[in-house]
User: What shape does this take?
Amino acid sequence: MQCSVHQHHSLGQPVIYNFARLIIYLHGKQAIVEIIEKNMTLNLTSTKKSTTRSKATSTGSTQRATGSLGTLKQITQAFRAYQVARNEFVNSLTGFLDIEDEDSAILEALMKNDVMAVLCCPLSQDPVAGIQSLSLQCLAKLSAVDPLLSQVVVSCGILDGVMASMAHEHAPVQASASNVLSAVTGSGPEYAKKVLKSGVMPALLNNLQSSNLLVKEAAVNTLATLIESSPDHAALVCTEHVLSVLVSLLQVQGSPRTLLLALVVCLSHVAAKSAALSEALVTKHGVLKPLTAFVQGANTPPDIKAASLNASAQVGAGPTCIRFSNAHSSCFYPWALCLLDNSVRAFVSELCLCVSVLKTCCTSA
Assistant: This one.
């Protein structure tokens, strides 16, 4: 399989070539020269020992054993050097991508060095979980920068490898793989369609119910991006089972703030994309109860309170929710009380949405 970012490089390059590139990157060409000299010395030594073995069998056996031990030691040292080089490379790249790059100078420099090819093969499928996780994180950040970089993921066979990482035994790898899918999906509806066609939903559902919070949150964010991409995708993704799981997770006590925020935002996208899905959230899954609890909660973090108000406004905008409010006004009236809470003045826009919903409800009543 051939696929390259620049025509003179390919993703099918031998591992030794990538190893050489990393060594050059970290230590310069002199390091390669030293490695070659060591191997030449080893070969010359082996030749001399072969000559000696023809003169004395016992002495030759000893030298052969010594040569084998030396070779094994060299192999171990070579692989250790490769592991160190890979760690240094991925950590350096992570640092580069965390720097603000307003003029895209860093991105251009990385692309000139064929960063996508280096990341995609073999690092994103590295047998060492830490290397694979960091590589996938870098791949996610790059894919989020430009749709052209997401195109590399979906068109060069990399997507299959990312999907395999979703079921990895190590949680950080699973979460990083979800982040890649989320970044690619966010590049546009056509990319979201390709991610859905890859069969992502079973893996996402499995990760959504993972005991690891990092994996769970990454899965929620990916679902939110898929739902937001288009109403058609929202209809495909939001089965009754998915909605039930999302609302249930919203009511789990002791969940971290970032997970709760991700869940509220995801449900807001669901309601915004489809009146039918909004109706299902209200009448079948009781989403108003946890949302109202967040709005009323004295200890609710401001960002979750704001997101809950916005989600409530999205849900309440539907005709079914207006009818529902006539019979369950206790779920709606606490929103008005929240308007008097000085702690949420920073979220005027969300509150204004809530006011409009209340006016509609009162008019209908």
User: Anything to note?
Assistant: Residues 1-22, 320-349 have pLDDT under 50 and may be disordered. The chain is about 75% helix and 0% strand. Residues 57-98 form the longest helix (42 residues). The two ends are 65 Å apart (CA to CA).
